[in-house]
Amino acid sequence: MKIKFNYFTRNVEAGDHIELFLISAVAAILFIRFFLNLVNYIQIGGESLHIAHMLWGGLLMTIAIIGLITFLNRQIKLVAAVISGIGFGIFIDELGKFITHDNNYFFQPTIALIYVILILIYLISRLFIESKGISAKESLINAIELIKEGVLNGLDSEEKKLAVKFLNDSDSNNSIVQTLRHAITQIKMVPFEKKRLTTRLKNIKRKYYLKITKNPYFATSIIGFFSILTVLNFSAMFRERTPELPFYWWGLLLSLFGSGVFVVLGIFLMLIRRRLRAYLMFKTAVLISIFLTQFFLFFTEQLMVINRLIISIIVWNVLQDLIHNEIDVYKGESFSKFK
Known about the structure:
Elements: H1 14-38, H2 53-70, H3 75-92, H4 95-98, H5 110-130, H6 136-153, H7 157-168, H8 175-186, H9 197-213, H10 218-237, H11 247-271, H12 275-297, H13 302-330
Helix pairs in contact: 1-3, 1-5, 1-12, 1-13, 2-3, 5-12, 6-7, 7-8, 9-13, 10-11, 11-12, 12-13
């Protein structure tokens, strides 16, 4: 299915932002349910009022929207993705109250409905992101976004290289492209000591990534880690001792099987030295774990699921770094979801 973008221009970083939004939402839902269970579902507002936590979720989403409307720099998009994700998670957590006659927060199918909503958001966003390759016009707009960031904070070598790549992918007959090509050659590189902290950290991580990937035990360590993680996840499923298996057990089984398939594919790709594809498979497995497995695990072990969620988010973040470093170090260009 092809979607035409005449009025809206896609951001090449949109995929990462959507994932960050959804991960923040899942984290907020699980943390708030864990906290409410810990304090015996305390109500704020006394006897006459009930201040539902969905209101706080709406407030956070409003703050994120105002931030996006007010500011132009790239950093606000990351901040807004996290804040709006947390707000959406807090908001949607009270879904059960609004689909039942008795305002039942504990309506059991709520978790399944929330899962469906989150998955639909993810799939629809992927449809827009991956419906076609990035167009010449979109390449130009994304180049302008990078140059705009250069005006605010300066450009490092990788950002300048990426901006040039976007301009090369744009319509060469466009006078704006020709002007920007000349202008970008005049932009001075930011000296290392004046670079933003995030840029300096990125350069350090890239340097060490080159070293560790040359270590013969690197692939073995990655394979071993994800193998152990998969076994630990499956072990949680077999702790259920009830004579009749509840619905969440089957959800847990399917989600674990799905993530397990991608782990196996990732291991195979690591063995044949296709690291980038392997990282993408592992990342898909971790996203399944965050979006699905953690939800169903919540029914069996509420305290442990928070620990597992934190670990999963850390692993996802590490994999993001591995993916970007693999492309930066070995292919010389930044990762784009539109390729």
